[in-house]
Amino acid sequence: MNTSEAKERLLLYRGPIDDADPQFEEALEHARRDPDLAEWMREQSRSYGTIRSKLREIEPPRDLAEKIIRERPIPFRRGWTQIIRKRPTSFRPSWTQMLQLAAAIVILAGITAVWLNFSQRGRHQLVQGQEIVVKRPPVQGQEIVVKGEVLDMTCYIAHNLSGPQHAECAKNCIRKGLPVGIKGEDGKTYLLVGKTQPVNAELADYAAKTVTIRGKETMRDGFAQLQVEEIRKF
Amino acid sequence: MSADQEFEKLVKLYYQDLYRFGFSLTRSEADACDLTQQTFYIWANKGHQLKDLGKVKGWLFTTLHREFLQMSRRQERFTDEPISEVAENLPHASADVVNRIDAQTMLGVLGQIDEDYRAPLVLYYSQDLSYKEIADVLEIPLGTVQSRIARAKIHLFQLLTQTNHRSHQST
C-alpha cells in the first residue's frame, strides 16, 4: 500500500470508533511509518471532532420528550397496542388544518355579516307604531398608522406561531391567500384587508417582518380590522 | 421496570440523537420533531417485534430514515462509486476553519449536500455507528455507504472552505 492508497482508506477513518475495523489496519500501519501521512490523519481527525461537536450542539425543543411520552400508544399485556390517541399531533401546522381554520374564519365572518344585516333590519321595525333606528358604531374608522409584525393569522391563531422562525411558513400561507394580519407594538392585532381586493400579494414578502401600515381602522363585533392604504417596510 | 418506564427511558436516551439526525435531514424543527415523535410512535406499536434489544438504536434510526424518505417521497438509487477518483482532490479544511463556523452555518452547508449523501454523512459525524450499522440504518449496501460518505465529506470540505473564504472577505 502506498501513501495515496493509505490516504484514500484513511479518508473515512474517524479515530478510536474505527480502530476495530480491519479495513483501516494496513493504512494505519502505513501512517505510523509516514510522518506526513500521520500529520494529515491527525488533522482529519481534529476536523472530524470539530464537525461532530458542531452537529451535537443542535438541541431539540425542551418539551419534545414529554410530548412523545405523553402521546404514546398504551400497550396491551400481550404486546399488542391500544391507540388512545389516533396519531401523535404534528408539530407542523398542516394545510388541511389551516384551510379548515381559514374556512371557519370566512364562515364566521359570513354568519356575522348576515346576522348584522338581520339585526339592523329588525331595529328598523316599528316599535309601538314608531320606527326606531338604532345606530351602530361607524364601519369606517379613522386613519391610523400601525407599526408591527406581519402575521399569518391562521398559524398565529391556531398555533400561536409568529416571528422569524416561522417566516417561511407565514410567507407561504399569506401568498396562498390565508388571512393576513399585523401585531402592533402595543400588542394589538389587526386583520389586514384591502379596499376592494385582498392585500396578500403585497404583504407576503413582509411575513414576520416589521412594517408600518397606514390605513383605516374598523371594528366589527370587537374584531379589529385595518383597511390598508399604504405599506412601508421598516 | 414497567413498559411505561421502559418507553420513557428509551425516549430520554435517544430522542436528542434522533432529533439531530432528523434536523440535519430536513433542516426544519417541526419536521424533525414530527420524525422523532413518529419514530417512537412506531416503536411503541411495533418495537416488541425486535428480538435483539441490542439493536434498538439502529432500529430507531432506520425507522426515522424510512419516515423521512416517505416524507420526501424520494427514490433511492444504489450506486457504488470509486472513492479513489475523488480522494485525490480532497480540499483542506482544517479544524481551525471548521471552528470558525457556527452550528447553524454548518447545517446550512450540510443542507447543500444531496439528501442521498447527507444522511450517511450526518450519521458518520454525529453517531458512534460502524459503517455496517450505518448501512443497516439506511438500508443500502456497505460499499455505497462508504463511497457516499467519502464523496459527501469532500463536498462538505469544499463548501466549508468556500464559506470560510466568503466570511473572511466580508470581514
How is this structure best described in words?
The complex is a heterodimer of chains A (234) and B (171). Chain A is 40% helix and 21% strand. By secondary structure, chain A is α+β, with helices and mostly antiparallel strands. In chain A, a hairpin with a 2-residue loop joins strand 8 and strand 9 (223-233). In chain A, helix 1 (3-10) packs across helix 2 and helix 2 (25-33) crosses helix 3 (35-55). The radius of gyration of chain A is 31 Å and the shape is elongated. Chain B is mainly α and 171 residues long. Chain B is 74% helix and 0% strand. Chain B contains nine helices and no strands. Chain B has helices spanning 3-26, 29-46, 56-72, 84-87, 95-99, 103-111, 115-126, 131-138, 142-170. The termini of chain B are far apart.
% residues in beta strands of chain B: under 5%
- At CATH's second level, what is the architecture of the largest domain in chain B? Orthogonal Bundle
Output the number of helix runs of chain A. 8
- The tally of strands of chain B reads 0
Keywords for this entry:
heterodimer, A: 234 residues, alpha+beta, 2 domains, five-stranded mixed barrel, elongated, B: 171 residues, mainly alpha, Rna Polymerase Sigma Factor, Chain: A, Arc Repressor Mutant, subunit A, 9 helices, 74% helix, 0% strand
Strand and helix layout:
The complex is a heterodimer of chains A (234) and B (171).
Chain A: H1 3-10, H2 25-33, H3 35-55, H4 64-70, E1 74-75, E2 81-82, H5 95-123, E3 126-127, E4 130-131, E5 143-152, H6 153-159, H7 167-175, E6 180-184, E7 189-193, H8 200-203, E8 210-220, E9 223-233
Parallel strand pairs in A: 7-9
Antiparallel strand pairs in A: 1-2, 3-4, 5-6, 5-8, 6-7, 8-9
Helix pairs in contact in A: 1-2, 2-3
Chain B: H1 3-26, H2 29-46, H3 56-72, H4 84-87, H5 95-99, H6 103-111, H7 115-126, H8 131-138, H9 142-170
